[in-house]
Amino acid sequence: MSFDLSVIPHKNIILAVTGGIAAYKSAILVRRLKDYGFDVRVVMTQGAQAFITPLTFQALSGNPVHTELLDPEAEAGMGHIELARWADLILVAPASCDSIAKFANGLADDLLSTLYLATKAPVWVAPAMNQQMWAAKATQRNLQTLVEDGVHVIMPDAGEQACGDVGLGRMPEPEDLARQVAAYFHKAQRAIAEKFGLLAGKRVTITAGPTREAIDPVRYISNHSTGKMGFALAAACYAAGAKVTLVAGPVSLDTPNGVQRINVSSAMQMLDVSMDQLQQGCDIFIATAAVADYRVAQVAEHKIKKAGDELAVSLVKNPDIVATIAQQQQRPFMVGFAAETQNVEQYAAGKLVAKKLDMIACNDVSRPDIGFASDENAMTVFFAQSYHMNKRELEKASKQEISQQLVESIADALRRRL
Q1: pTM, 2 dp
Q2: Fold of the domain built from segment(s) 197-417
Q3: 217 assigned binding-site residue
Q4: Does 362 participate in catalysis according to the annotation?
């Protein structure tokens, strides 16, 4: 499972490392957490320092490592209170049998056990120990106490252990633990977006990428669209609380998290899927796809062989997808895109009226810095006259930032529509 990192807000993670051979995995875990954009601070017990040095974690996290309960360099010597307030989540990995027992019985004789009692942040423990220690009644009793106290216990993996035993007790892999933390915050942010997001509860259909119009079984007519803008918009709409369906032409992009993707090839296929989405219910239709204007009148059944210096292919006009959707009786809020190489704003304003759109965003793809395949864009947005909104200039920025501004523009127009 992958996550759109722009959806996960900045969060502070305390990774607490206790004594055990699995402590070496915690070094990798720091890197994986930082890959998700988390700020990580490491707390180590004395036992942990017997297996791996604080310097390793300092280098990997970019932050000082905390090992002492009373830190003379902390404000008023109360480092544990500062850390307790700083953390958005405390992950104890590996969590030794001893640390679990301390938590369960309310002991506070070192930095970690004191931090556990002093924090309001969620606490997760990833136990790692000998399989017999894991199975011991006292350990299971302590774990049950932690669960009742609201601690999230991550079950250990089974397998061969450093001592030679085989059974439950191995710490899960760092990649899996980091992914679970990211999923936790992503889910929480998603819940907020659904409740308060700009497009909360809206059903959005987005077309993206090029279409391919077959000439024969091995050749086709297409264009340079990469689909990046449409995919960025899909992620932004989802982050704003919408239910998003992405109708994608042939592109090599990962599906944004939480977005339903339907792959198509030709313009006719894209139209059929778009009409089906309209029938299922669609509040907003965003047409970013670079749909081929023409298709081959008669697709050859077999590969066309070379014969002479010229090849004549008869073309017929494809239906205009966005105009077709806009003409439906139960039309959604219609957003068009205009990728032009000259007279950009003039052409875009004409399309807005001719296709009966609510909003259109245009850009100059002849510019080398924002053309096809670029990770940045700059756009001008026009609105239908009934909205009484001035055009908006979106200055050059990443396509993710442009997408967020477009979502804001859509939300503003929708409020005026009501």
Answers
A1: 0.58
A2: Rossmann fold (3.40.50)
A3: no
A4: no
